[in-house]
Amino acid sequence: MAWLARLSLDYQLRGGPNGAPRTVVHALHEGPLRVMRSLYPEPAGICHTVLVHPPGGLAGGDQLDVRLHLQAGTHAVLTTPGASRFYRSEGETATQAVAARLDRGARLEWLPLENIAYDGCRAHNHARFELEDGAELVAWDVTALGRPASGYPFERGHVHQRLEVVGSWIDSGLIDAEDQRLLNSPLGLNRHRCLATLLFASGDAITRARREQLLELARDLIGPHELQPSAAATAPNSKLVVLRVLAAQVEPALDLLRQVRSAWRQALWQLPGFSPRVWMV
């Protein structure tokens, strides 16, 4: 029997214990998808939210639906305590969908751990972000195809990926396990089985100086990294800066994304490169 899980999070500004405004969240859920905890490990009133899906993965027909609304001036960091898994399916598609709306001046850091596409899965993984003027987003998406280190390569099934910043960018594609040109060609994934994207997006145009600063920071970190041959940063338009990475395994890809996210955070918002506590468990 397929499971449907929905979670709606509404972030608002309220007075904290010392009277300074801080971001608080109101959550509504249906099914097995919940906020494990909201934390305030930073002094700036930023809400760190840990999302948990107790089943640990999605089988054929399952649907995971996350809706986020960040009201004006709020700042939220969202992550997960572990990887999301798309299990083998006999025919039905498993869907993971995220839709976020950021009001003026809101900041969102969307940093879930990786999605693992098991051999034989049929998966849709979609994320859509809508930003008003003055809103800013740092987000990543990391997908691992199969579990080759455990002897389970990605040989059957497919993953449909779609990452959208409304009005600025759409990255959409189908990864089919039988498409050997895509998976193995130097013009495709070149035998890599992990693909990752980190982006910074703004609701209005990013100044050229700011774009160049973010690109320089990313390229300085790519240069000495082991993934230098398969990572690159670019600014496809005036509202977006993107880092793309291919890797044989998840760990080095996440390592590079974390380094660049930390550097961007300091440059963009003059905030320390603070990592969610759950990553350290």
Q: Notable features of this structure?
A:
281 residues, mainly beta, ten-stranded mixed beta sheet, seven-stranded mixed beta sheet, 3 helices, 17 strands, globular
Topology:
Blueprint: E1 4-15, E2 21-30, E3 34-39, E4 47-52, E5 63-70, E6 75-79, E7 84-86, E8 94-102, E9 107-110, E10 115-117, E11 121-131, E12 136-145, E13 157-165, E14 169-176, H1 180-184, E15 194-202, H2 208-222, E16 231-237, E17 240-247, H3 250-269
Parallel strand pairs: 1-5, 4-6, 5-8, 6-9, 7-10, 8-11, 9-12, 10-12, 11-13
Antiparallel strand pairs: 1-2, 3-4, 12-15, 13-14, 15-17, 16-17
Helix pairs in contact: 2-3
Q: What is the helix tally?
A: 3
The count of β-strands is 17
User: H/E element string?
Assistant: EEEEEEEEEEEEEEHEHEEH
Mean pLDDT score, rounded? 94
Helix content: 10-25%
The rough form would be described as: globular
Structural account:
The chain has about 280 residues and is mainly β. The chain is about 15% helix and about 45% strand. The chain contains three helices and 17 strands. Strands 3, 4, 6, 7, 9, 10, 12, 15, 16 and 17 form a ten-stranded mixed beta sheet that branches. Strands 2-1-5-8-11-13-14 form a seven-stranded mixed beta sheet. A hairpin with a 3-residue loop joins strand 13 and strand 14 (about 170-175). Helix 2 (about 210-220) runs antiparallel to helix 3 (about 250-270). It is globular, with a radius of gyration of 18 Å. The model has no long low-confidence stretch (mean pLDDT about 95).
